[in-house]
Specification:
Radius of gyration: 66 Å
Largest sheet: 6 strands, mixed
Strand content: 25-35%
Distance between the termini: 175 Å
Order of helices and strands: EEEEEEEEHHEEHH
Number of helices: 4
Length: 234
């Protein structure tokens, strides 16, 4: 961006003294310090609220000009609000462009090279509201208001400390063993106890078989014969 050769008054802030249901006017002064002609153009972020005359023109070398800005009457929704509108003043030296382009169409012809050719100044708008008594008031900004001082809170007295009696901790005793539960069917158990208390029964002797009886008779006969033979020998 080229260095500006035009001084603006005011440079950064434009104030409007606004009366209820009426408009307001303000002036921007442009002073050319260069030894050549300078073109200027004025833009705004809110073209429906302002009337700018002239919104463009040419200043001769060392010439001073004025631009009158008129604020239209504010609506009910705008009164008391913070103004956020802005103006942009663009200037262009004659030596920075070709001589054939130095006419009313110079802005369109150089629009693509605006960042390197144009000199730009930004101005912020401020509304100072007038009351019925012609007293000026500045609208409140959007900055958060300071918190209101609250009444002091009375602290409740702290109760005195008391000793806490420790309750004895119960010892961990083993849980009692549950008593055996008798079954409803007692007949089998009694029968089992009766069988365990009685001695085992002895089987009755079986009669000897015929072969065993014959052997016994032979042994008896041999015994008797042996006794008889012994007597004869003696």
């Amino acid at each position: 961006m080229a260095k500006s050769v035009v001084k603006l008054t005011p440079e950064t802030d434009l104030n409007f003294d606004v009366a209820p249901e009426t408009g307001a006017e303000a002036t921007i002064k442009l002073q050319n310090f260069a030894d050549e002609q300078v073109m200027f153009k004025v833009k705004t972020t809110a073209p429906n609220k302002y009337i700018v005359k002239p919104n463009s023109g040419c200043l001769k070398a060392r010439e001073t000009g004025e631009v009158k800005v008129t604020l239209r009457p504010l609506g009910k929704g705008d009164e008391g609000k913070e103004c956020k509108d802005k103006f942009l003043v663009q200037t262009l030296k004659q030596s920075s462009v070709d001589a054939s382009l130095w006419n009313d169409n110079v802005w369109k012809a150089t629009e693509k090279e605006a960042s390197s050719l144009y000199m730009q100044n930004k101005i912020k708008c401020h509304w100072r509201m007038k009351s019925k008594d012609n007293k000026l008031t500045v609208p409140e900004t959007t900055a958060p208001a300071a918190p209101a001082a609250s009444a002091p809170v009375q602290e409740k007295p702290t109760p005195p400390l008391t000793k806490v009696q420790k309750e004895p901790v119960p010892e961990n005793k083993p849980a009692p063993t549950p008593a055996p539960v008798e079954t409803t069917d007692k007949t089998p158990r009694r029968r089992k106890q009766n069988t365990e208390s009685k001695p085992p029964a002895v089987a009755p002797p079986q009669p000897a078989s015929a072969q065993d009886q014959a052997r016994i008779y032979l042994l008896i006969a041999a015994f008797i014969i042996g006794i008889l033979v012994g007597k004869f020998v003696m």
